[in-house]
Structure formats: structure tokens, C-alpha cells
Amino acid sequence: xxxxxxxxxxxxxxxxxxxxxxxxxxxxxxxxxxxxxxxxxxxxxxxxxxxxxxxxxxxxxxxxxxxxxxxxxxxxxxxxxxxxxxxxxxxxxxxxxxxxxxxxxxxxxxxxxxxxxxxxxxxxxxxxxxxxxxxxxxxxxxxxxxxxxxxxxxxxxxxxxxxxxxxxxxxxxxxxxxxxxxxxxxxxxxxxxxxxxxxxxxxxxxxxxxxxxxxxxxxxxxxxxxxxxxxxxxxxxxxxxxxxxxxxxxxxxxxxxxxxxxxxxxxxxxxxxxxxxxxxxxxxxxxxxxxxxxxxxxxxxxxxxxxxxxxxxxxxxxxxxxxxxxxxxxxxxxxxxxxxxxxxxxxxxxxxxxxxxxxxxxxxxxxxxxxxxxxxxxxxxxxxxxxxxxxxxxxxxxxxxxxxxxxxx
Length: 409
Ligand SMILES: [Zn+2]
What we know:
The chain is of the alpha+beta class. 42% of the residues lie in helices and 13% in strands. The strands form 4 sheets. The protein has a 6-stranded mixed β-sheet.
């Protein structure tokens, strides 16, 4: 393994970074290609080591191919779904920051409430960020142009989500084919179609639409990555089940909130529920929120041994009563400022899922708070995660602040 200073790859949708002789490991490390054939050097990509379902490293694969030290470096290199494009970035000599312009744009999907992964998916479609075959070909990736669902047509976003025979059947199954077709007469891009449907459909119907859209793309990925073919019924059934579970979960949450009990949340994919024991640990600092508001404190802790970052989130009211708390962790470990940024993102997403609106956020990571409030132009993972934080805050909340609180230790 060789470490070069300066440029390193930021891993995005992982399609096009060469596995060997490219600085994609954390801190710009490179896996040497000595002894590999030129075919392997040219064609093997980092993305083959990534489990497309969890968006994390495929440990079996990594362990199979590399020696112990290399495995340790790989599994300590974080992958963030917030990073959309693979990009080679440079570290500035002076301040150690990475830079180029990114824009934060917000689209609120009306009053509709959908799970975060579906919201993120809609968002990616609307920004034309979905890695369809058309888009990959456009970026010079050597892949087929054929649609993953029908295997007959050119796969661009509009085709795979709306025009594909399989997509049309899904829209037929949920009695939306007429609406979708009529909107498609006047709109060409997937983003326009979605935004037009947002106006036309009721809140409940749009939620159902969003789940089906997500389920279609999921099916397309299952076909491409795992060679699993699903029927249209299976695609619709998954969407329907997700919708029912999501609505039930929201009802339960509302009941819990009304009772004012502390609820420990089950964590998301890739996150594991740890337990409530250390929730009220003293290192989570606190100042009273304004009257009528709630305050969410965020703390991140790093374990090199366990290769993970732990997050402590807790929400209190103006009287200092605990309303909710959550402990979670994610792996692998990452740089402190990135871990703190992730903590803020998870907190914003958690508060959104709890359907609370009057919450301010507080943490002791000055770099994160400063960038959130006045920063821009950071092209590293730190910037991508914080742009996502800003976007989520702007979309979900009207007047939530993110504030710095110095620790007294
Ligand atoms: Zn198709």
C-alpha cells in the first residue's frame, strides 16, 4: 500500500474508480497493482467490492482478495450515500480543506410523508442523479444500454420509471396509469413528471406513488446486481407493504409522543441499536431551548478498535425533561469532523421521522456548526454530508437552528 499526498478519490456511486493504482483509500492511500495483469488494472473497479444493498463494503469479498493490512485500510474507508459523483479531489496545502462549488437546492414533497430512503430517492430522481445505463454510458462507463427491467429499450430515467412496460404494469396495478400517462403528455423529464403528479395527486396517493417508484428502481437494481427477476405484482406488493408499515409506525410514534415517554428508536440499515444505558451520559451538554421549543443535542464518539462511530442524540423540552433519546452507531470509523457532520444529519433525519417541527440542534463541533451556518464550496465528503444536512433542514423544518455549545470539560 502506498500513501500519496494531495489528490484522492471521493467515492460516490462507485462506478468508475479503478481498484488498483488509484488513491481511493482513506487519506489518499493506493493499492499497488504490481503483479496484476493489465486487464485487471484497466477493468476492475472499486464498486465491485461494495454491497449494493447496504452501500457498505462486502466483507467477504474484501477479505477474499486482500491481505490483512489492506483489508484494514479498505474497511476503514467510509462510503457515504450523500456523495453522488465519484470525483478526484485535492487537499489544499494551507487549511487542509478540500474545495469546489456545490449547490444546495431544496424540494419539499408537499405534505406527503415518506420514509427517508424514499425521500432521498425522489430527490435523486429530481436532480437527475439516478445511475441509469444512459447516464453511465454518458460518463464513459463501459456498460449495456438496455433497461434492467424489460431488457429491450434504452434505459434512461423516464423510461425505467414510467415508459417501461414493467413500469406501466406497476402503474396499472395501483390504478395510476391514467394519471401518469396524461402527465407524460405534457412533461418529458422524470423530475417534471414527478412534480406534476405532486400537484395532481392527493397526499395519500402521492405517498403510494412514491413507494411504487422506489420499489421499481429497487427491482431494477435487484435484476442488475443480483440477477433476481421480479413480477410486477411483487413490485407493487413491496410498495404496498412498505406504505402500510410506514403509516403504522407513524401512528405508533404519534401515540408515544403524546404519552411523553422516552422512546429508543430502532436504527436504520447499517446502523445498530445499542441500548439505552449510556443515553443520559453526562458528556451530552445542554442549554435550555426557547420557550415552546425543543432542543436536540448531538454527540459523536469514535472507536478505532471497534471501527465505528457512536452517536448519542437526545431531545429535551424547555423544562429540561427528556422527550426522546437515541443511540446508534455506524461503521467504518471516519475522520472526526465527518463523524460529527453525520451526527447532525442523523439527528435532523430522526427529528423529521418523529414528525417534530419545533426543534433546535446543538452540538460541540464548531467546524460543523460553522460550515452549516455559513460554509460553502467544500467538495469533500464533509461538504456533501453538510449540504445534505442543509437541504434536509430547509426542506423539513422552517425555523430550526443549529448552534454551537462549548463543552465545559
Ligand atoms: Zn424497460
